[in-house]
Write a structure and sequence with these properties.
The chain is flat. It has five helices and no strands. The two termini are about 15 Å apart. The protein is mostly helical.
């Protein structure tokens, strides 16, 4: 497994775990009230810390274990994997934008729209990283 593939696994697991916790623990009973926005802001702090911390620790540990591999330039295969993963993420991102527009026009609460926006970005990112991991495993 290449250095970049390992980093992608850490990113996927970090995103899934941190935002899984976020969406499962969010106090949905207050989503329509003004306190719902404060809950979003407060809960994003530990999510951000967990993602940045796990990615930093993993990147440092992997770079220490294989410094040569960490400094290798991206080859054509990896560039193609990156592009195809980004392309796959475009579709859920567009659907999420339309869902957010729908939410605005149907007077969904501010916290509801924020959560929908966060979910849009998280799903698109999980699709991007997941597609890249799939392509790494397939040997593309």
């Amino acid at each position: 497994m290449s250095f970049r593939e390992k980093i992608h696994w850490v990113a996927f697991a970090s995103l899934a775990a941190a935002f899984g916790w976020y969406f499962l623990r969010y106090p949905w009973s207050i989503v329509a009230r003004p306190e719902g926005v404060a809950a979003v802001a407060g809960m994003l702090v530990p999510v951000t810390i967990v993602i940045i911390g796990s990615m930093s620790i993993a990147a440092a540990a992997l770079a220490i274990r294989a410094p040569r591999e960490a400094h290798l330039k991206e080859d054509e295969r990896e560039k193609t994997i990156h592009l195809r993963g980004t392309h796959a993420a475009y579709y859920p991102l567009v659907l999420g934008v339309w869902a957010n527009l729908f939410a605005v026009f149907h007077h969904i609460s501010a916290a509801g729209r924020l959560n929908l926006l966060i979910a849009t970005v998280v799903v698109a990112e999980l699709v991007r990283v997941g597609a890249q991991l799939y392509l790494y495993r397939r040997g593309h």
